[in-house]
Each structure stands twice: as structure tokens, then as C-alpha cells.
Amino acid sequence: MQKNNPRKFDVVIVGAGVAGMYAVHRLRQMGLKVRAFEKGNDVGGTWYWNRYPGCRCDVESMEYSFSFDNDLQQEWHWPERYGTQPEILTYLKHVADRFDLRKDIEFGVSIKSAKFNSSDSLWTVGTEEGDIISAPYLIMATGNLSTPRKPNIPGIDGFRGAIYHTGLWPHEGVDFTGLRVGIIGTGSSGVQSIPIIASQAKQLFVFQRTANFSLPARNAPLDPAVETKHKAEYPERRRAAYDTPFGIAGYPPPTASALDVPEEERRQTYEQKWGQGGSISFLYSYNDLLLNDEANKTASDFVRDKIRSIVKDAKTAELLCPNDHPIGTKRLILDTNYYETYNLPHVKLVDIRSNPIREIVEDGIRTADAHYELDVIVFATGFDAMTGAMKEIDISTDKQQTIRHKWEYGPRSYLGIMMNGFPNLFMITGPQSPGVKSQMILSCEQHVDWIAQLLQYLEDKGLREAEPTRMAEDAWVDHNNEVANGTLYPKANSWYVGANIPGKPRVFMPYVGGVTAYKKKCDEVVAAGYEGITLK
Ligand code: NAP
């Protein structure tokens, strides 16, 4: 529409989830003219789209919140230990109101393309609707788990009943009462929704390809004494979070190897952590659970035994016991009554590893050995994680660089924030940063602050462009791979390596050296005058 006369801003931000919201606030405070574009009709990102029953954050609510404004964190009250999706979305809408963020966000707009022109150092961004916007800086706050993917199962379009994806849940909700439901996928989304769907449905078939480890969340109303204490310690806890591997303070780091303690003592430790609920505390039992197979096996065996003790049918219990990856090498799931749900007479686990789904037919799902009649199919099949959202947009430069080509064999970045070949393009919690392996809001804030500081530096020095060197990027990618290969993580077929998307290159994408090491590196780059980044 305005091809010859694009609207001009200082910064274009794509996405108005946690990352985009804070970027709007932070950069606007610097006096920059900022505009964010969001596909959804309101703020919230992940918490806007993922409205499936049981959706809840697996980081405790006192941690999973913005730290940038002390009044905000002191005044907000979280009712439960873990926030539900509606509570978190209410919180994010409150933040949008309180800081008047919506006035610089356009909703219901999908970004289609972005092209950098080196002659005027400007990004030109195009929307699906044909609008054109330009700005010197482009920030992709597009999320890591924001492109839901349904597998391409033959016959899917011929199904007569309703089909849902957990990551694109209808706003009005779904009532499963009296229905025969099939759910495909047993990652976090499946595991959280299965007990709630089971409580409504006439019959529930869970189609499981791979069993995952899940621990009890032990969610409960937030103890007022815990809340008061946490709020009194907030500034210190937020600072201390940067000195931890996952960006979450309050858990003493483990010092002993799982193999250095007697078996009974180890069992008691796991038992105590299982009773407390939560994943960090469990993974913090010993310092080598993610490094040493034998150490990990002690924790994996403990959880497998728990599954066998909860699930009454021995065959179902065995199918639910994960045996293809060490515990913690896929995102550990937190649940409420997941394994218990399989003791209900109307819930059946279908092993599609040994009897794969052949097709979806008009009245259900046909596997290699059976036919399941269904009224509803729920896909809890996950996302094209970490690279999907970036690759969906046609990002290019006038020097014939494209992200799709650059990332053909897996993502490459400097610090998970910038890329060689793409000046003034920034990602918030991109691949090769600890984002998804950390308390996400902390990582979003850290990235936005780092980017803000760089933009201020450019402005102060009268410079126009920042672009990491090829050498710095290669070294960072190599370092990421080296760190990951020193752990057990690459052993799992997870979305961390793109294993859930057929044909996606197998590359370990998140930085697993921990938040402390990562933040130190980011700070060192700044202290050395933006080492590894060409400024001009
Ligand atoms: P996911 O972890 O990728 O799980 C997808 C599930 O679908 C897996 O069980 C997978 O089986 C199955 N699947 C995929 N394609 C399939 C196919 N063609 N046939 C049969 N099964 C198939 O996705 P998710 O559960 O949506 O979770 C993604 C991430 O989002 C989580 O790891 C977490 O980081 C985040 N999340 C967090 C929360 C929370 O905070 N509590 C909640 C939900 C999601 P295979 O393993 O065999 O591929």
C-alpha cells in the first residue's frame, strides 16, 4: 500500500510477548521511536496462544515475572505456586496497561518480509496486509516455541470431528464432556492437558510415540509467608539469579556426584525432591546428573520406579517409562496427576511406537493394528522450535543473504542475539543463547538490556551499523557445540535438536553452558568495546 512512502521508526519489533513487551518499554524510555507488530490480537505471545486446559508455567510464579520495575513485582499477587495460563496472561495485560505499551504495538499484523539495504542502513519490513515500514534497527521477539506444527498424517482433512492444536487453542475453550477424544503427543503440553481432558471426556486415547519423564509439580496456593519473604528479598534474588545455571535463585547448587553417596542416601534425596515438586530442585540433587550417564541413571531409575508404583496396569506403566533418553536431557515436565490418570477406566495409552498411526479417517485414527473412533483429535505435537518463526519470515539483505539460506544446516549466531551478514538485526533469546534453558523472562530482560546498551553506544558514537564478524560467530557456534557435547543433552531426540520436525537438521540449538557463563561473556563483549562486532 505505502510502497513509496514507508512509515518510519527507529526500531521495529516483531512480536509482543514477554520479550517484545519489555523491548517496547525499554527502548521507548531511551527516546527511540518504537513500533511493535504482533500477529495476535493482544499482548502475551506464548500465553496468548497456548490456552489448552491445564496450561501452566513450569517455573514458579514468584520467579516467572518481570524484574524491571520493583513496584510492579511488589504489588502483583500470584495466587498459586505455579501460574496458570489465564493468570499469566492477566499479569501480562496488566503490565501492558500499567506501562501503556499498547499504544506502540499494532495487533493482528503478521510480518512477511524484512530486507536490509546497506546504502542507507535501513531495514524495510513488509506485512501480510501489504503495509511497509522502515527502521534502522529490527528486533525479532518472535519466540522459540511459536510456530505450532501438526504432523502431516494422511487423511487429516477428511476427519469429520474437531481438530485442535494445543498451541493454537480456541479462545472460547473446548468442552470435552461426553466426547471420545484422541490426543497425539506426550510432551509438556500433552502431559498438562491429559488429566483435565480425561476429567471431562467419555473416552480418552493417548497416542504416545515416546515416553517422557514428568515430575509432580505439587502446585498449591502460594503461602503468604513465602510471598512476603520472597518480596522482601526480590532485588537480591533477581541479581543472584544471574549467578545460577538456569537463571533461578534460591536453590543451593549441588556439590556432590550422584555416584559418591550411598544408595540409600541418594534414594532419600530423590524422594525428598519428588515430594517437594519442581524440576530445578530435582536436577540439583547432584552435580553430574546431566554430565554422566551412570549418575543420571540413578535419577532416571528412581522416576521409572515411581511411574511403576503409580500406574496400576503393569503394561501401561512400562510403556510410560522413558527409556530412550537420560532424565533432564529433554525439557523435564511438571504435572498434576498425569500418571494417576492412566488408572482411570476410560483412559487408554496407545503405543504408536510399535503400531504407528497409518491415517486419520473420517471417524477417527487408524493405527497399524487398530481403529479408534473419535469425536475430537488434539494435537499436542509441539513446535518448529527456535528457528521456525525466524524462517517463516523472508529475512534478507541487499547483499543476497537470507536467513533461510544461512540457517539451512542449522542456526548460526553470535551470542544468540546477532548474525554475521545481517547488520542491525537482533534476536531476543535466539538459538545459541540460554533462553529456553533458563527462566525465560530473565533472559528476555537481559537480551533487551544488552541490545538497548548497544543501540545507545551506536547513538553516542554517531555510528549506524553493528554486525558480528564471521570469525566471532563461528567461534561462538563452535563453543556452543563443544559445551553441549560435554553434556548428555545431545543424546535425546528433542526439539532442542529439531528431532520433532522431519527433515530438520540435527543441531543442538540452545546454549547449555548456563546463565552465569553466558551473561559473563555478554558483559565481556561490551567491556571490550563490543568485541567480535564490527561497528561503523
Ligand atoms: P514437544 O515437547 O515437542 O512434544 C511433542 C509431542 O508430540 C512428543 O510427544 C512427540 O513425540 C509427539 N509427536 C510429534 N510429532 C508426532 C508424530 N508425527 N506422531 C506422533 N507423535 C508425535 O511439544 P510440547 O509438549 O508442546 O512442548 C514444547 C515445549 O514447550 C516444552 O518442552 C516446554 O519447553 C514448552 N512448554 C512449557 C510448558 C510449561 O511451562 N509448563 C507447557 C507446555 C510447553 P516424539 O517425542 O516421539 O517426537
Please tell me about this protein's structure.
This protein folds into two domains: 7-147 and 385-535, 3-Layer(bba) Sandwich (FAD/NAD(P)-binding domain), CATH 3.50.50; 156-223 and 240-379, no CATH class. It is globular and about 70 Å long. It has 17 helices and 24 strands. Helix 1 (18-29) packs parallel to helix 15 (440-461) and helix 15 runs parallel beside helix 17 (515-527). It has 536 residues and is α/β, with parallel strands linked by helices. The protein has a five-stranded mixed β-sheet. The structure holds NADP nicotinamide-adenine-dinucleotide phosphate. NADP nicotinamide-adenine-dinucleotide phosphate binds at residues 56-58, 145, 151, 166, 184-190, 192, 209-210, 331, 352, 380-382, 495, 500.
Describe this protein with a few key phrases.
536 residues; alpha/beta; FAD/NAD(P)-binding domain; 2 domains; 5-stranded parallel sheet; 17 helices; globular
**Which ligands are bound?**
NADP nicotinamide-adenine-dinucleotide phosphate
Query: Helical segment tally?
Result: 17
Major β-sheet annotation: 5 strands, mixed
Strand portion: 15-25%
Mean pLDDT metric: 97
Low-confidence runs (pLDDT<50, min 5 residues)? none
> Shape from CA axes?
globular
Order of the strands making up the biggest sheet: 1-9-8-7-21
Count of the domains: 2
Offer a quick outline of the entry.
The protein has about 525 residues and is of the alpha/beta class.
Fold blueprint:
Layout lengths: L6 E2 L2 E4 L3 H12 L4 E5 L7 H4 L6 E5 L9 H6 L6 E3 H14 L6 E3 L3 E7 L4 E6 L4 E4 L1 E4 L21 E4 L14 E5 L3 H13 L2 E6 L5 E3 L7 H9 L1 H8 L21 H14 L3 H4 L9 H18 L3 H7 L12 E3 L2 H4 L5 E5 L5 E5 L2 E4 L3 E3 L2 E4 L8 H5 L1 E4 L5 H4 L18 E3 L12 H22 L4 E3 L1 H16 L29 H13 L5 E3 L1
Parallel strand pairs: 1-9, 2-3, 2-10, 3-6, 7-21, 10-22, 11-20, 12-13, 12-20, 13-16, 14-15
Antiparallel strand pairs: 4-5, 7-8, 8-9, 17-18, 18-19, 23-24
Helix pairs in contact: 1-15, 10-11, 15-17
Bound molecules: NADP nicotinamide-adenine-dinucleotide phosphate.
